[in-house]
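A common beginner's mistake is to predict each chain separately and then try to dock the pieces by hand. The better habit, illustrated here, is to supply every component at once so that their relative placement is modeled jointly.
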Amino acid sequence: MNSIKRVILFGATSAIAEQTARQLVAQGASLYCIGRNPDKLTALIDDLKIRAGDTQCIDGSVADLTDTQQHDRLIDLAEHRLGGIDGVLIAHGTLPDQRACQADFSLTRQEIETNALSVISLLTLLANRLEQQQYGVIAVISSVAGDRGRQSNYVYGAAKGMVSIFLQGLRNRLAKANVNVVTIKPGFVDTPMTAELKKGGPLWAKPEKIAQGIITAMQNGKSEVYLPWFWWGIMLVIKYIPETIFKRMSL
Amino acid sequence: MSTPHSWNRLPRVTADATHTLTQRTASIPDDLPRPLLAHGNGRSYGDVCLTEQGTLVLTRGLDRFIGFDPLRGVLRCEAGVTLAEILALVVPRGWFLPCTPGTRLATVGGAIANDVHGKNHHAVGSFGHHIRALELWRSDGTILECRPEDNNGWFAATVGGLGLTGLIRWAELQLMPIQNPWMWVESQRFTNLDEFWSLNRYAEAHWPYTVAWIDCLAQGKAQGRGILLAGQHAAAQTELPQFKERSKRIPATPPFSLVNGFSLRAFNTLYYRQPVKPQGALTHYVPYFYPLDAIQHWNRIYGRRGFYQYQCVIPPREAEAATAALLETIARLGEGSFLAVLKTFGRKPSLGMLSFPRPGTTLALDFPNRGDKTRHLFEELDAIVREAGGALYPGKDARMPASLFQSGYPQWETFKKFIDPGFSSRFWQRVTS
Ligand SMILES: Cc1cc2nc3c(=O)[nH]c(=O)nc-3n(C[C@H](O)[C@H](O)[C@H](O)COP(=O)(O)OP(=O)(O)OC[C@H]3O[C@@H](n4cnc5c(N)ncnc54)[C@H](O)[C@@H]3O)c2cc1C
Ligand SMILES: NC(=O)c1ccc[n+]([C@@H]2O[C@H](COP(=O)([O-])OP(=O)(O)OC[C@H]3O[C@@H](n4cnc5c(N)ncnc54)[C@H](OP(=O)(O)O)[C@@H]3O)[C@@H](O)[C@H]2O)c1
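With all components supplied together, the output reads:
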């Protein structure tokens, strides 16, 4: 069991990260929250401070994470405030407008910068620190969409797929340093990111449920987790449909 | 998620659109169809939280605490926070909600908009009495901070304002200190209404919380028999029992109501025969205040056709006669209710223009929806309430005639000036047309 008492959250204002933060605080953790929107971040931190006990430290800073130049400084700040790092959750992301991306490469590039490159920059720096300290957990929210490219969503899928594969390699490397690397693959989650989609039915999960799964996976040092678990079965089927058939389907 | 409905699942209406709020400072997009209506957690029994046109604005995502002063017990939070979330935060720190309805799954916004009451109304008034401030967003973009001491009418219109004055974004509550999460409760059986009145008078003078449950199927000499529960927060003590919360759920909606003459008679008789504890006992606050919340989706037992709640208040002078007449009518027409709840309100005037609580006696009953039979019963009950100068509770209504609303809420025309022109509800259209 990893004890995760000092945690950095990137994209802390995401619905999934916010629920994770609340549950971590209830378990006595100290948090450093990084978010892009200052109003949302203040509301989040004020709320967490009220939920937290006197000895827990809750702090954070505003940053656009596509600005990779800032990453090193942010991690320094967080480590300093928390007095060390036991765990990290990287949660920020955007759901691209696939059609708009098909029409305009600059949009595609932007999406890949947000969903993949900014994450890889953070991972590079965090990996080196945790490798040195010889303990810790790094969890990243990828997606089931990264398991296979589909016509409706392949820019997002490609970015998440890049993150998932990067994490595989990193896990392989950091296993030797007693550092766990956890890839989180949620299915459909009812959050602002999916506000435009029609929701309801058994495939949709609440962010608090996903948050629970994230914390358990971090504590248990899991490698890859599908959340909820049944997406493992769904993706197994989807991954094994032969390409000759897959290309004629409209997924 | 699936279409929002009210707790009694009646009426079944769908708005043109729904919009989920997650940030209190975010404005509601102009291109959403109007009128708007806030929907908290849908714990009302009827259409105050529903609209057939425009956009239902879902507020549960506004669930953050904004400020808490643990020394003075002042809590500011977003309007979609539930009472359960507040209790989970403040009870371990020695504070409690000074006023709570019989469900902790109501949101703060919903509790303000219906100016809800609890078992201690006679001691502390209703929810609005404990609000220090609230923020109201109007559809023209204006933001108003309203406090009880303001005399421009906005606070009085918004407390009990049925969501019509705009969107409440946050509120500041004054909490009440407690020693521990336990209640000291005494229960006593009474064999008829006369006995209830005398027991109740005594209990009200001595206890902060009182409420009675009535077997509404008993007739003749036993008419109005029931159990009176009087409670207070337990004093500090060295040893307290263990409490573990358990919850059950009704997994699916049966095609027909499981509540029928047979199950009602059995339930009411068993409930009446339960052992009472006149010498008192410690009860944890959760089962004491929220017995029904322990069964998730209990509203499903009424089947697909849903059910009605009928809650009226009768002024003190008429209370005894009218209560007897109401119970007689229900028994005569062979209808019955699982939980008939009887309570007297105190004299503290409510702050809201349309607040339901007022001096007198309130009776609340659930009835399965049996179509014309049920509607006929309500017409007879309405006649008694009207004659006695009483009123029905909008938060628990899906059918009252416009005339009964208007006679029960004489300030409704003054209130109209405060309605946000971009807001409306099915309830309001029904009772003002
Ligand atoms: C088991 C049970 C027991 C109950 N016991 C009691 C009781 O003892 N006493 C009592 O008074 N009531 C009682 N009720 C009724 C319940 O407390 C009220 O109906 C309450 O208002 C429900 O809150 P909600 O958040 O679910 O609001 P909803 O039902 O969703 O909405 C209620 C009203 O509030 C408005 N509203 C909601 N949020 C906002 C906002 N942010 N801004 C502006 N308007 C808003 C809506 O437009 C609507 O008019 C009980 C209900 C149940 C299910
Ligand atoms: N919802 C789903 O169905 C689903 C499924 C699988 C995976 N996921 C993944 O889960 C994660 C969390 O998303 P969510 O569902 O919780 O949605 P969300 O609430 O919309 O969260 C996304 C968050 O990412 C932040 N963000 C975006 N770009 C950023 C940037 N450049 N710098 C800093 N922060 C940035 C957003 O900040 P702003 O508030 O400032 O915009 C927002 O807080 C994402 O990685 C998402 O891809 C979601």
